[in-house]
Specification:
Radius of gyration: 29 Å
Strand content: 15-25%
Number of strands: 22
Strand order of the largest sheet: 5-4-3-6-2-1-7-8
CATH superfamily of the largest domain: MutL, C-terminal domain, regulatory subdomain
Structural class: alpha+beta
Bound molecules: adenosine-5'-diphosphate, magnesium ion
Shape: elongated
Length: 596
C-alpha cells in the first residue's frame, strides 16, 4: 500500500481510541466536564453497563447556543488558549478532545442551556457527523446521552466486558469523584435503579460513608499535613486514612487525587503502604483517600490522553510528603485495641458494642469535616486533641499527654506466663510480653542501625554451621544486611559458614541455632509486609531475641518492660502489626459488673 493520509473519519476513530477505552471512560470525561462547568448536582444514568447508554446531566453553566457545534470539534476547548496556560491548568479538562472523541464512536445527543438563555440547544451526532441541530426546552445545565458506544468500531466493541464488569468500572469513577467533590450531589442510576448517591452536603464524612459504608468511614483518621521544604515544592496532603483496625486484601481502596483530579500512581500507593509498615497484619493493605495539593506548575497532567496518570516535577518530595503525612496520622491515632469487638485478640465481651476507636472519624464528627484541601491545617487528628469534647465522652480517654504515647501504667502481675496485667488511668490493660519486647528491641535496633553501631558479641570460638541450600542462598544474598544487624559470618565453602559474632541482643543463644531460626523465618516469608529485606531481617532478629511466652518475669522485669515500651514511638503494635496490648476500660468494667 502506498503512503496516504487517512480519511478524517478513520483518523477520528483511531484518535478516539486513546481517550475512550470503555463506557467508564465516557463517564469520566463527562463527569469532569460537569465539574468544570460548576455543577452542584451531577446525575449519571447507565443502561447495560453503559454499553447501550451513558447519560450525564448537570446543572452547571451550559454551552451558549452559538458554541454548541464547536464543542465537538477536535481541540475545541474553552479552558485553555496558550501553551503557557498548560503549565497551570486548574480545570479537569483542557485537551478539547473528549466530546469529539466520544461523538466519533457513538450516537450522541447533547442538550444544553446556560441560565441566561431561555431555550436550550439540542444537537445529535452519529459517528461524529452532525445529524440535527435545533432549539429545545430544558432546565439550565447540560445533558449528554451517549448511546451504543463503539457501534461503528466492531474491533472495540468486541473487547467490552460483561455488563456487571463495565458497570463496576463506572461505579468506581463516580464514587471517586464523589469523594473529591463532597459538595457536589452525585447520583448513579443503573438500569433505572439508584445504585449510588451522595448528599452534596460538603461534609466529606457523608461521601466516605456513601462510598465505603458507615462502619468503614468511622474507622478513618484525618490526615492533614503541609510541607514547605526549602529545597522542594510546597505540598499539602489532606484526606483520610484507615485506622490500623481497617485493612483490605488489595490496594484498590488507596485513592489519590492531585489538585482534586483522580489519578493512579503506583509509587504513591506504595508510599501509603509503607506508612503502615509494621502496623497491619501480614498481607493486608490500608484504605486511604488523599488529596495532594500543590502548585499546578509542579505537576504535568498532560502525559496521558485520559489524564489518569500525571508526572511530578519532584516525585521524591511528593512520595515523602505522602508517606510522612499518613505515618504521622496513623501513629498519632494508633489506639490500644479495646476488648469490645473489632480488635484482634479481642476477648469478645460485648462484641460489636464498643465505642468507635479513638482518633477515628466517628469520634470526631462535627469538627470541620469539609472537603480535602488546604483548609484543614492541623497536625494532629482532631479526635486526639485533649480538648475535643466528643472524644472525652468516649470510653477511651486520651491522657493529656502526647497521643502517640501510651498512658502511664502500674504493673499488677503476670498471667499465663505470657501477659502482664497493668492498671492505667482508665481501666485494665493486658500486655503481651513477647510482642511488647519485640517492639522495644525493634526500635532499639533501628536506632543502632541508623548510627551503624549495632553491638555485637564476639564468639570465643568461631562456630561452623552447615546450612540447608535455601538458607545458604539467603545468607549469600543478604550477607551485608546480616552484618549490619550484628552478625559476623563468612563463607567456609559450599553451604558451610563460619560464625564469629552474633548480635548482642541475642544474648546467650546458641549462635548456630539462632542463625538457623532466623533463616527459617526469612525463608517462610512470614513478614511480607516489610518493605525490604533488611527490615525483615531486623524484625526476625528481634523476634528471636525477645522474651517468649512461658517465661516468668519478676515484678522488676515487668516494670522495666512497661517503662521501655512507654518510650517507643509506636507502643501499641509489635513490628508485625499485632497489638501489644488490649484494654478493658473502666466503663466496660462497670457495665460487666452491672454498676451502670
Ligand atoms: P475539554 O474539557 O478538554 O475542554 P471537551 O471535549 O471535554 O474538552 O469539551 C469541550 C468544551 O465543551 C469544553 O471546553 C466546554 O467549554 C464545553 N463543555 C463540555 N461539557 C460541558 C458541560 N457539561 N457543561 C458546560 N460546558 C461543557
Ligand atoms: Mg473535558
Amino acid at each position: 500500500m502506498s503512503i496516504h493520509v487517512l480519511a478524517p473519519d478513520v483518523a477520528a476513530k483511531i484518535a478516539a481510541g486513546e481517550v475512550v477505552e470503555r463506557p467508564a471512560s465516557v463517564v469520566k470525561e463527562l463527569v469532569e466536564n460537569a465539574i468544570d462547568a460548576g455543577a452542584t448536582a451531577v446525575r449519571v444514568e447507565i443502561a447495560e453497563g453503559g454499553k447501550r447508554l451513558v447519560r450525564v446531566m448537570d446543572d452547571g453553566g451550559g454551552i451558549p447556543a452559538a458554541e454548541v457545534p464547536l464543542a465537538f470539534a477536535r481541540h475545541a476547548t474553552s479552558k485553555l488558549s496558550s501553551v503557557e496556560d498548560l503549565s497551570h491548568v486548574t480545570t479537569l479538562g483542557f485537551r478539547g478532545e473528549a466530546l469529539a472523541s466520544i461523538a466519533a464512536v457513538s450516537q450522541l445527543t447533547l442538550v444544553s442551556r446556560p441560565a441566561a438563555q431561555t431555550t436550550a440547544t439540542r444537537i445529535r451526532l452519529e459517528g461524529g457527523q452532525q445529524v440535527s441541530l435545533g432549539a429545545a426546552g430544558s432546565a439550565a445545565g447540560t445533558s449528554i446521552s451517549v448511546e451504543n458506544l463503539f457501534y461503528n468500531v466492531p474491533a472495540r466493541l468486541k473487547f467490552l466486558k460483561a455488563t456487571a464488569t463495565e458497570a463496576g468500572h463506572i461505579h468506581r469513577i463516580v464514587s471517586h469523584y464523589a469523594l473529591a467533590y463532597p459538595h457536589i450531589r452525585f447520583t448513579l442510576q443503573t438500569d433505572n435503579r439508584t445504585t449510588f448517591h451522595t448528599s452534596g452536603s460538603g461534609d466529606l464524612f457523608d461521601a466516605l460513608a456513601a462510598v465505603f459504608s458507615l462502619e468503614t468511614a468511622r474507622q478513618l483518621i484525618e490526615v492533614s499535613n503541609q510541607e514547605t521544604p526549602v529545597d522542594g515544592p510546597a505540598v499539602a496532603v489532606a484526606g483520610f486514612t484507615g485506622a490500623t483496625s481497617l485493612h483490605r486484601g488489595g490496594r484498590d481502596q488507596i485513592i489519590f487525587f492531585v489538585n482534586k483530579r483522580w489519578i493512579q500512581d503506583r509509587a504513591l500507593n506504595q508510599a501509603v503502604v509503607q506508612a503502615y509498615h509494621t502496623f497491619l497484619p501480614v498481607g493486608r493493605f490500608p484504605v486511604a483517600v488523599l488529596n495532594i495539593e500543590l502548585d499546578p506548575t509542579e505537576v504535568d497532567v498532560n502525559v496521558h490522553p485520559t489524564k489518569a496518570e500525571v508526572k511530578f516535577q519532584s516525585p521524591r518530595f511528593i512520595f515523602k510528603a505522602v508517606q510522612k503525612a499518613v505515618r504521622e496520622a496513623v501513629v498519632a491515632a494508633s489506639p490500644v485495641p479495646g476488648m469490645g469487638g473489632h480488635a484482634p485478640g479481642s476477648f469478645g465481651l460485648h462484641a460489636g458494642d464498643s465505642a468507635p476507636w479513638p482518633g477515628t472519624l466517628g469520634a470526631s464528627r462535627g469538627h470541620n469535616f469539609n472537603q480535602m484541601g488546604f483548609e484543614a491545617q492541623r497536625t494532629l487528628p482532631v479526635a486526639n486533641r485533649p480538648d475535643n469534647p466528643d472524644t472525652a465522652a468516649e470510653v477511651w480517654q486520651m491522657p493529656p499527654t502526647e497521643p502517640t504515647k501510651m498512658p502511664p501504667m502500674r504493673v499488677v502481675g503476670q498471667i499465663q506466663q505470657m501477659y502482664i496485667v497493668a492498671e492505667g488511668p482508665d481501666g485494665l490493660y493486658l500486655i503481651d510480653q513477647h510482642a511488647a519486647h519485640e517492639r522495644i528491641l525493634y526500635e532499639k535496633l533501628a536506632a543502632q542501625r541508623a548510627k551503624a553501631d549495632v553491638p555485637q558479641q564476639r564468639l570465643l570460638e568461631p562456630v561452623l554451621v552447615e546450612l540447608a541450600p535455601g538458607h545458604a542462598a539467603i545468607v549469600a544474598a543478604e550477607l551485608d544486611i546480616l552484618t549490619e544487624v550484628g552478625f559476623d559470618i563468612e563463607s567456609f565453602g559450599g553451604a558451610t559458614y563460619r560464625i564469629r559474632g552474633i548480635p548482642e541482643m541475642l544474648g546467650q543463644a546458641d549462635p548456630a541455632q539462632a542463625l538457623v531460626d532466623i533463616l527459617v523465618e526469612m525463608a517462610d516469608g512470614a513478614i511480607p509486609l516489610a518493605k525490604e529485606t533488611h527490615e525483615k531481617i531486623a524484625i526476625t532478629v528481634c523476634k528471636r531475641a525477645s522474651i517468649k511466652g512461658g517465661q516468668v518475669l519478676s515484678p522488676e522485669e515487668m516494670k522495666e518492660l512497661v517503662r521501655q515500651l512507654e518510650r517507643t514511638t509506636a507502643p501499641r503494635t509489635c513490628p508485625h502489626g499485632r497489638p501489644t496490648m488490649v484494654h478493658l476500660s473502666a466503663s466496660q468494667l462497670a457495665r460487666e459488673f452491672c454498676r451502670v
